[in-house]
Model the fold of this input.
Amino acid sequence: MRKLMATGVVPGVRDTGRQVFPLAALQRLQTRPATDLTVLGAPEVAVLRSDAPVRVEEPGREWIGFGTGLDQAQLLAALSGWWRCDPARVAAGAVLPVTVASFVVAVLTGLTEWEADGAVGTAGRYRFTKARLAGYLTDLTSPVNAADPADPQDARLAGLLLGTRLSSVSGGPIAYVTTDPTAATADEGE
Done:
């Protein structure tokens, strides 16, 4: 609940003084459907498990994380890297759902190119240089894509994923989830 409150994706939340999470919003969130990953056409998909935005001092971005207070360019920069991951494995899924508290709040595509962070002590961190923000939400209780993707495939993927529930398990921000419902639901070794 705290992650949802901190990202601003649930309207009517009061987080100053006594915290209030509206009952109607909670009831709507309980009815959000599970993500149907079988339509993606890949054996697994990477999932970016995000938190509320935090200001950073890095070239190319001011923020890391997801929040409705960020504009589209800030969101893309905040979500497209630098993540400890297997970039080829992320790219193989062709889409990167971004979740907050197991709800898909954004969708990245265009993951075909990446660069490694050459800084000392950050081996294995990558940024996806051609990533596109196919969609994102400003209201999880009434999910509507706040982006206007030019690519019809991006719009389709965002429509399938945004606002759905997508559970994943990982020791870091990137999890790998199988799209086959009969196999394990997450690769916990990542």
Observations:
- The chain is about 20% helix and 25% strand.
- The first strand starts at residue 44 and ends at 49.
- The chain has a mean pLDDT of 87.
